[in-house]
Design brief:
Layout: H1 8-26, H2 34-50, H3 55-69, H4 76-87
């Protein structure tokens, strides 16, 4: 897809995933499932590059990320943004 043809939901997801990845990388605290969160955020980022993401896979990644970082208050806003972006895929694309 060219930039003008890109689904705005994909662009929005790419933006919030990138932001949450940066926030997670900047977080000095270690927690048990950090690697899970990093892996799933990387998978989401890859899906946004490939074009139309697989919606069940988006939701699965969101659940894994939420489970991994849901108790880290410093990441709660970024996690909410990713959740909102994934939920937009339940609706038809707006052009």
């Amino acid at each position: 897809m060219t930039g003008g043809d890109e689904d705005p939901r994909v662009a929005g997801l790419r933006t919030v995933v990138s932001r949450l990845r940066r926030e997670l990388a900047a977080l000095p605290a270690e927690f048990p499932d950090r690697a899970v969160a990093e892996d799933e955020l990387a998978a989401l980022a890859a899906m946004t590059i490939e074009g139309a993401p697989d919606i069940p896979r988006l939701r699965r990644s969101l659940l894994l990320i939420a489970g991994a970082i849901g108790s880290v208050s410093a990441l709660s806003r970024g996690l909410a943004d990713v959740r909102d972006a994934v939920e937009r895929f339940a609706l038809p694309p707006r052009r």
